[in-house]
Amino acid sequence: MTQIEVNVHYVTRIEGHGNLVLSAKDGKIEKLLWEVPESPRFFEAMLIGRHYDDVHHIASRICGICSIAHTTASIQATEAVFGIQPSEQTIILRKLLYDAEMLESHVLHTLFLAAPDFLGVDSVIPLASTHKDVVVLALRLKRLAYNLAEALAGRKTHPLSCQVGGFAKLPDLNELKALRKRLVDAYTDLDIVLGLFKTLKIPDFVRQTEYIALHDAKEYAFISGQIASSDAPAVSINDYLGVTNEFCVPQSSAKYTKNKRDAYMVGALARFNLNFKQLSPRAKKVAKELGISAPCYNPYMITVAQLIETYHVLDDSIGLIDQILQKGLKEEPNKVKAKAGRGVGAVEAPRGILFHEYTYDDKGLITKANCIIPTNQNHNNIQKDLEALVPKILDKPQEEIRLMMEMLVRAYDPCVSCSTHSLNVTFK
Amino acid sequence: MKHDVTLTVDPKVTVKKTVVISKKSFKSVVENLIKNMEVVGVKAKQGKFVFDRISTFDELSMDYDVTVIPPTKYVLPAKETILKFSTGDSIKAEPILENTQRAIIGVHPYDIRAIELLDEVFMAANPDPNYIARRQNSIIIGMDCLHPSPKSFSPCMGTNVAENGFDLLLTDIGNRYVVVIGSNKGAEILEKYAQTTKPTSEDISKQKLLRDETLEKCKQKLNCPKERIPKLLEESYDDPFWEKRASTCLSCGSCVMVCPTCFCFDVQDDISLNMKNGERIRQWDGCMLVDFAKVATGENFRHDKTSRFHHRIFRKGKYILERYGKMGCVGCGRCANACLAEIASPVECFNALDESNRARQAAVRALREPILGSELYAPRAAELVRVDKLGPKEKVFEFKFKDGKELGQRPGQFVELSIFGIGEAPISVTSSPTRQGSFELAIRNVGSVTNTIHNMEKGAVVGIRGPFGNGFPVNAMTGKDILFIAGGIGLFPLRSLIQYVVDKRSSFGKVMVLFGATSPSVRMFVDELEAWKKRPDIEFHETVDRAEKDWTGNVGVITTLIPKVQFEPKKTVAVIVGPPIMYRFVINELKKRDMADENIVMSLERRMKCGVGKCGHCQINGVYVCQEGPVFTLAQLRSLREAV
Amino acid sequence: MKPKIAFLEFTSCEGCQLEVLNLTAEELLDLLGDVEIVNFREAITNRSDDYVIAFVEGSISRESEIPRLQKIREQAKIVVAIGACACIGGVNCLKNHMPMEQVLRIVYGDAAKYYDTIPARPINAVIPVDYYIRGCPPLTSEFLKVTKSLLLGKKPEIPAYPVCAECKMAGNICVFELGKTCLGPVTRAGCGAICVTGGRHCWGCRGLVDEPNINSEQEILKKYGLSTEQVVDKFKIYNSYSEVKK
Questions:
Q1: What number of other Cβ atoms are within 10 A of residue B265's Cβ?
Q2: Per-residue pLDDT for B365 more than 60?
Q3: Rounded to whole angstroms, how far apart are CA atoms B348 and B309?
Q4: Is B253 close to C216, i.e. CB distance below 8 A?
């Protein structure tokens, strides 16, 4: 009689709290759960009655890593309600700020959170002795992203200068020039990471699911586009509820989603699968070197997709800075007039598609708010992946099963504390 | 000894030469200066004006009313490193002096006058090396103010004109500038970069006309001659106006931060993570901020906003003038612009207090030996050679300077004990200078520095600055009878004097020592107390507030000992040190015995930081405790209202 | 012997801990020379409860969090509250203005009985706290300052005065003069007034000064065009807990 018990309380090296539970006897699974016991935050309740100038400031606090994503989605939702079209300059600056977050988040995940597993250590700290160069370059890349965000928005975590209609302060062109140089130098660092990744053994597990992401034919979509699916035609972001279909499950304080199948995936791999054509040429080349092509159905490859996206983000940010340096920046008046109505903002957070929907009254105060977080949308798919993976590895030693389950969860780069915000407040 | 300040005015230039330059010439001057050094000037920002770095002439906005922050920030910046230090056994500190050449363009006369005041503060007594380095490298190109801000009142303070303190002073007369050359440096600049011509009589009349017109534009009026302001304030010391006015004060500090004549600062240590080195940094501080006068034990000598507001206006209208000979307010109006509660404007306060004349107080200002060189803030290394426990929270530490020199203190002086990374604390010296080879500090563990020293062992090395303060008046006491009254740890500073008197016993008459402790178990320096008791030439009495088991001596507060001693009031000097509450009662008893105010001597405590009369924290009314104190006679204290 | 430190979190966005990873490489490596990190769930797998200094992030908003926090107080010699949520309650307290049953019912409907929530509160409402690192998120420089101070056994020199003083030191134009409103006059300084420097106003994330002149601030805000309701609203974002307490 072989008894396998895996109880991971909480999974480390992810944002937020989640548990893995597995109980199997003689090759038969009795219990297999990805549990989300995270404390609910009640953000939609907190936003009720808030003035539009404060809304994105509060919404930013949903998450410490992807605060820029939440800020952007929030501002775009408010702008959709008020009928404000941001200027070309604002859009360029927002995209550049977004690239900073992508860069930081992906570096954090690939090198600090996921890589230790592949290198057989429990954190990045021991790597400081064995792979000192990698640790130093990881910190350097993170710092670059941090400084880029600082130059654009005053601060990376909970940005300061973003506001409805634009930016409260424009970046200094000399600073952007200096950052451009550091971005160019970053390729060398990233190539070392690429070299490292080529040596790693990625578990070979395949489960095809539905993939959902923002899609824009003109560019690799981060902050604009339509909702695309591998299984259905694209729809407007205003119709997001028809795609997400949230529901409750007892093992989670976060809700689950599904669309055309029993679950779907969002995030870097979903983007890679749906938007491969829009990646920069260099990023496509890196994908080829790594031996990954779209569509890829191995969730362990999400981390690899993030590395490919990081190359794209470097290319993109350098291009955006060049545009800014060529055109220069000019002060733009910020005229915001509140209007009653409903609107949706959607962005691709590093972990996947994120929706903010707000309803305002004519005074500019929120009467209803709804946020659907990418990790929310992945919980169901993680559960389904585990259900497909574990039977295949039940013959392995317990420690290895545990590690593979943890690595699967980590590959998704989940942001659990965002996902337990709460939902659907119908409030008068 | 006062230093002659002759930085910007060559003594040979007695009459200031006036020339005229074209606008084009001025542009050439600025552009050439930009090529050769850092240039700052007035720029527009969000509808207001600021001094900032310029890289082209067009960035300047010369016809401005007032800047938000004054140009004094270039000689006394908001934050600057004054020392870089290394921790460990040697006290190694490197003074950091800024030597960037900098031209400041567009300084209005009231700001020029403010810089003159700062020159007096930072360069006369105890010359401040950091200030001097910045000042010597600054070129001041002044500009007459022709568009005063609505809240400005510099004509009321007489500061709308400047006769000195600049390298060049320009007046925009329309199509060109009339320029007064204030220094050789200014003359050199014009020679190199401008075409100058002699002013015509029309130029000069135009200049006068514009200056007169500007006077007319000034909206604010002072309702009394400015010379009356100090008297006015003194008469109004207890006026109900203060509390009413200060009730809406946010203690936000905006008024002091924007003021060109404010210069108080705080000093903090920032150690690096490797704990091996760090920086000692000074940054702007202000008497209006809540913790400015708070000491380590938690007592705050200006706890309420009324007393802080009161102190600031008195500084601006009286104390600074009395201390430095120049008015502490130049009427720029920045505080009035910055104050959200709209209570800050000094001219509004002076007007509100406009009353009849009073006799003016004589300035209380003592001359000090200046500490020359760049070592003003750099401590000297002293090694701890002995530690003894004195009480539950008290220890006595004996130090020797590593260079073998003597401290050279007078009894009653204090030192600043410096532990890099933690900070500095003022500690009185408890040993007499007659005991050479080392000095002793008796320290109670109350704060960060004292806690750290309490954990140090023999062999540790600390930094010492000083000695500071005036010390006890031993010369005046020679030949007289001495009555020592020590309460609790008041014994610490008093012991230095008692030892001194004991070592020079024949120079003094009758010696009486009264000592009070709260209980027998907290008597400190017990061996010495016993030794004094045994001496036939000292009359020693002791009491405790409450007894413990084996105590057979007096029980009662220290005032109960006074009736036990016989002394002739005219021949006796009483020296008292103890907790604040003790003074009032002891003084009462002594006054009952007909002792004169001049013969009652006390040592007072305040929050002290720099020790050299600069940072401002130890002020009592117009005096600095680290300079005119900490020892005061009762006669002196009668005129310091805050000392009660 | 390097002291062992732990990073622990309750209801939070984890942004404060993440700021530790935003130190420069030199700072992080130097820090690791001074301390041993034995618990940092977000970055390290191995965990130990043998720590001497606990950095606690997040506010308490569930019954189950209370005993866990008390255990941390028992274990740690020094507890440091890091971030607005731990120090003053933070944005989590915005929900306190509604009754908890209502909040739960709204969110979870009939399933509400499986979840619990209590009015959110800072950690010093549950345990005594030794040091505070304020801000949302705190500056890395303040994190280093407080950490260095507690390693030296020194009281950290954090200002007791309002943001206005630092705003002026930074050379900013007062936002009231630009037609905006600001909580700077009653909010504790230490951040260098970065939000104003960044073009916005102070939202009060570092908490109120010890003796804020709230009446005066309210009068000023009203003078600049906000109604009493709007004024109270501005305070609510970070200072709901103190308000609710009052």
A1: 22
A2: no
A3: 13
A4: no
